[in-house]
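Sorry, any thoughts here?
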Amino acid sequence: MTNFYNWLDEDDILVAHNAKFDLGFLDKSFERLGLKNKNNASIDTLFISRAENKEAKRHGLSNLAKLYKVRLVQHHRAIYDTKATAEIFVKMLDQLYKLGIEYHNEIDEKIDLKLAHKRSRTFPCSILVKNAKGLKDLFRLVSYSCTDYLSSGKPTIPRSLLEQYREDLLIGSGNSENEVFEELLNSKEDKVEGIIDFYDYIEIQPKNHYHSFIRSERITDEAELEELLKKLIDIAKKKDKIVVATGDCYYLDEYQHVYRQILRLTVKSNPGARDIKPMATFLTTEEMLNEFSFLDEKLREEIVIDNTHKISDLIELVVPLKKINCIHRI
């Protein structure tokens, strides 16, 4: 890795498939070695494909290899993936030239960003309304998400649109699959801080909600998970963000867990339907405090009790549907 760092010039543009993941890995490696990040510009072949290959249903590296007639010997082997990505990008250059793109900084200006957004990876967030105006803005966002930004049957909201209507909303970081935690796994602390800036409050959840990261070996064990959650709390506090323990609840009782799994399996277009989701019952205050027993007592009470009330105090009484008095004719 040190040899790669020394070989890399600051003016070099890095090309990768799903660049966010690869660049995050590089950042972590450079940080571990005590090397200064060169902040190279990057081009993501996944992003370009989503925007320009409108007829393609899938944009994974193996799918693009077939589309561009590039040989991919062994998928998920670094050297072969790298070679295939390079050959795919060379062929993509013809597409970019036809769009009048000759320089790196012209890509975002001239490709179909709206389509790219629809096909890009999405992250969850929580949206709370602060008042009646916020409720109207939330309805507006829901309408946009189900029409202009409906992606493969899934409602989505681009960050820019959420930013436009957020004045009377509270934006939370969302469940365990949120972009803050993802960035915590992939990148340096300063990048995590940059992403945290977008949110009004940061959510952390019981440890079982993060077990998929352990199963996929992105986190070693529960001990490492506990340290990551402590680090996340520290970073959020450093940025003066409220940290709240949330449950991502879907049902009241444990026996209802299987019902949710059955419902997920009925959605044929859901590629993750067979993934085992964590138990997501509604927990009592005492149960939530017990879930975070790896934190000291004062901090547990802060994120489970005190900060929950802080969020509540920011919200006015909101009536979703106003009562209308009707005069009936007899």
